[in-house]
Amino acid sequence: MLCCLYPLFTRDELGVFTLKEFVIGKNDAGQRLDRWLAKTLPILPAPLAQKYIRLKRVKVNGKGSKRDARLKIGDVLQLYINDEFFDAPAPENAFLSVFKPQLDIVYEDENLLLLNKRPGLLCHPDEHERVATLITHIQAYLYQKKEWDPRKENSFTPALCNRIDRNTGGIVIAAKNAETLRVMNQKIKDRELEKYYLCVIRGTLNPPVGKLEGFLLKDEVKKQVSVHSRPIPGGKSAATLYRTLKTQNGLSLVECQLITGRTHQIRAQFAAAGHPLLGDGKYGLERDNKQYGRKIQALWSYKLTFHFTTDAGPLNHLNGRCWTVPHVDFVEEYFPGYTLPFSKGEIS
Length: 348
Description:
alpha+beta; twelve-stranded mixed beta sheet; five-stranded antiparallel beta sheet
C-alpha cells in the first residue's frame, strides 16, 4: 500500500525524483526485493533497478538491502527513484468496472476459485487477444465484488495456478492472494493435486487400461511437441494413466490422470500411440475430424482432487476434497446416455 509521498530532492545525476514509501502487506510478503520492484515499477529498466538497489536508493526499513532479500509483512520500503518510472493509478479503473465477467464457478472461498473454463477461451492474453481471457474475467469479477483493488496493491494481481490449452475445457485454479498462489504452485510442483481429464480418441485402446510414458520435446517455432521413447536433449519425461470408459462408433471415451503436466501431453501421447484425439487439428487427422464434425480437440479437465501430504497453510481445509464439472459436451454428443461417474459438483 502506498503510504505517503515526501518531496526530497529536485535533481541529481540520475534525474528528478521524490521519496516514495511503501508498506509491505501479506500479498507482497515473501517476494525478493528485485522482483517486487520489477512488478511495482514495470517500466523501470532492470539494469537501472539493480543500480538503484546497489546505490541504496532502494531501502528496506531505512537501510540498504540486497536484491535477493525476502520481504516481510510490515517492511517499509523507501524508493528514491526517478518520478517518470511511477505510473500513478487512475481514480477509477473504468475497464474493470464496466467489463461483464462470465465465469462458470465450480467452487469459491476467500482464497481461491475453481473455474470451469469453456473451450475457445484463452487463459492469458496473447498477441492477438488482450481482453477476452479467463484471467481478465476473474480480475473484473473480484474487482466488482470489492475483493481486489489494483490501487491498493503494490504488485499482486489475481493469478492462475494452472492453465489449459485454448480449445480444451475444464477446471482451472485461480488464486485471490499471493499466499494462496505460492502454496498452490508448490503443491502442483510437488504433485499433491490429482488432475483427471476426459477425452475422445479414434479407435480402441489395447489394453483398455494402462499407462503412456515417453519424453516430450517442444518445438517453440511450431508450438508443437514430439514424443520419444528414450531420453533426448531438451526432452521432458511424461506419464499419463488412462482407462477406457466407453467404446462405440469407432470412438473411445477415455479418462486420463496426469502424473506429469507437460505441454500438449495427452494430445501428443495418444496421437503417438496411434489414437489421436477427435477434433485435434495439430496432432490428429483432418479427415477423421470432418467425418465426425469436430473442429476442436475433445479434451476436458473434468475432475480435481486435493491430496496434500504436507502442510498447506490457509488451504488445509481443502485437503481430501474433490470436484468435478457437471457435464462435458462431447460426452453428450458422441456417447448419448452415458453418465459420468460423480459428475455432480463436489465429491465428499
